[in-house]
Design a protein that fits this description.
The strands form 3 sheets. Strands 4, 6, 7, 10, 11, 18 and 19 form a 7-stranded mixed sheet that branches. Strands 2-1-5-9-8-3 form a 6-stranded mixed sheet, with no helix packed on it. It has a 6-stranded parallel sheet with strand order 14-13-12-15-16-17, with helices on both faces. α5 packs across α6. The chain is of the alpha/beta class. The chain is globular, with a radius of gyration of 20 Å. β16, α10 and β17 form a beta-alpha-beta unit. The mean pLDDT is 96.
């Protein structure tokens, strides 16, 4: 089959013929239907995040089940599924405490499947699997718990986005922050995830939703999904303007870009007793500074949000239901479509600031 292979950081992905082993116990082979063009993959391409190379990237996807391994009971051939990049073992402390998105075994086996081996090969060379998904390919072998079955009439392009950006962003507002009706919200960075934080805040009944980004086109696009105000830091101090618009600061301030600078700004823009939610993935090793006195005297709360603090096996169904009910707009997020062999063009356009979400299909 064809796959896009990352062989070297800061080099284009290579479209190659690769081999895919059959699924083992509790594994599923799927035919990829769609994959989202997400900035997290770009981090690996540019070395801001680390994965063993060579690797097949792609973590936001949807698929149709082709074959199941032994002892698989959740899905069967022909099922349409959302692919989750946080499959769970169900036995570790994180899973048993209700935080399957933080599964200890999954995080300890990054780049491989749960048994610490791979199913992808090229010319006898092993290829790593990003997020146990590796959906920048025509097919994939994934853990059974990474397959979330959905109705056949739900659009597979939209299902792919629920696999990452929708669940991560909407979940950050609903599950991590628990945004209250009437709240003032600031979102620093309105790319794919930030747009869905905006949607989640709107769904929660927030009164003011302030989108902050250096890309004017992204700010205009955010208005379509619920942003009530937009701020470009190149035009004015965003922290000062957020405080002015909210009469003291945001009740909930989200960082969705992934940098120390934007994390600090999100913290400074929160009001007394405000909640700061860090959603974006900063480069490995990057740290941000906070005023230690301010966090005490103003009783601010800082929390991380991974995968929207969602339980994918349950909450992705909720995202599908919200989409079907018209309460969140997933189809409107898609602005670009590419074939698998156009993947480098897709990421070049993302790096240049293309708004909305691009979607890749195998052919």
């Amino acid at each position: 089959m064809k796959a896009a292979v990352l062989r070297e950081v800061n080099k284009p992905l290579s479209i190659e013929e690769v081999e895919l082993d059959p699924p083992k116990e509790h594994e599923v082979r799927v035919r990829v239907a769609a994959a989202g063009v997400c900035r997290s993959d770009l981090h690996f391409m540019h070395g801001a995040a680390v994965i063993r190379t060579p690797a097949v990237l792609g973590h936001e996807g949807s698929a149709v089940v082709e074959e199941v391994g032994a002892r698989v009971s959740r899905v069967k051939p022909g099922d349409h599924v959302i692919l989750s990049f946080a499959p769970h073992c169900g036995q570790c402390p994180s899973c048993l405490s209700g935080h399957a998105n933080l599964c200890d075994l999954h995080m300890a086996t990054a780049g491989t499947l749960f048994d610490r081996t791979v199913r992808l090969h090229a010319g006898g060379e092993d290829l790593a699997h990003m997020g146990k998904v590796a959906c920048f390919a025509e097919q994939a072998v994934v853990p059974e718990t990474g397959c979330i079955p959905i109705a056949e009439d739900f659009p597979l392009e939209q299902a792919a986005l629920i696999g990452c950006s929708v669940t991560t962003g909407v979940g950050a507002a609903l599950f991590s922050a628990e945004v209250r009706p009437g709240a003032a919200v600031a979102v620093f960075g309105v790319g794919g995830v930030g747009l869905n934080i905006v949607q989640g805040a709107r769904l929660s009944g927030a009164d003011k939703i302030i989108a902050v980004d250096v890309n004017d086109a992204a700010l205009e696009f955010a208005g379509r999904f619920g942003a009530t105000h937009t701020l470009n830091p190149r035009d004015a101090d965003p922290v000062k303007r957020v405080r002015e618009l909210t009469e003291g600061g945001a009740d909930f301030s989200f960082e969705a870009f992934g940098s120390a600078e934007t994390a600090t700004a999100a913290f400074d823009a929160a009001r007394k007793r405000g909640t700061v939610v860090i959603v974006g993935l900063a480069p490995v090793g990057e740290q941000f500074g906070i005023d230690a006195v301010q966090i005490v005297r103003q009783e601010k709360t800082i929390k991380g949000s991974y995968y929207g603090s969602a339980v994918p096996a349950a909450d992705m169904h909720r995202m599908v239901a919200l989409t079907n009910a018209g309460k969140i707009d997933v189809g409107g997020l898609i602005t670009r479509r590419y074939r698998l062999d156009e993947i480098n063009e897709a990421y070049d356009e993302l790096a240049r600031g293309a708004v909305g979400r691009g979607v890749i299909t195998p052919n």
